[in-house]
């Protein structure tokens, strides 16, 4: 499933905004009586979920990189103090 098929440009939204959109879709699906109409909405929800996962993984990667940089700086500072 291509993420680009979604009607809104979700790539510009934050994780919080994407989660809000997903929750709205879930609520709409729960209130839907006609299963024919809910199939397309469910597929959109799956696509949105994939976008959220990718964005979450990207954020985790950024946090890990920043943490490694900070640890490196601290380690270098301590090594310099020992010298």
- Pick out the low-confidence regions: none
The biggest beta sheet is recorded as: none
The counted number of beta strands is: 0
Instruction: Tell me the series of helices and strands, N- to C-terminal.
Output: HH
**Estimated share of beta-strand residues:** under 5%
Characterize the structure shown.
There is one protein chain. Helices cover 78% and strands 0% of the residues. The protein has 83 residues and is mostly helical. Helix 1 runs antiparallel to helix 2. The chain is rod-shaped.
Please sum up the structure shown.
The chain has helices spanning about 15-30, 35-80. By secondary structure, it is mainly α.
Top keywords for this entry?
83 residues, mainly alpha, rod-shaped
What topology does this entry show?
Blueprint lengths: L14 H17 L3 H48 L1
Helix pairs in contact: 1-2
């Amino acid at each position: 499933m291509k993420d680009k098929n979604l009607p809104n440009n979700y790539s510009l939204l934050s994780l919080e905004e994407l989660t809000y959109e997903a929750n709205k879709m879930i609520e709409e699906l729960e209130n839907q009586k006609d299963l024919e109409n809910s199939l397309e909405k469910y597929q959109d929800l799956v696509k949105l979920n994939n976008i959220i996962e990718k964005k979450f993984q990207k954020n985790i990667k950024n946090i890990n990189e920043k943490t490694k940089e900070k640890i490196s700086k601290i380690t270098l500072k301590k090594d310099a103090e020992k010298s």
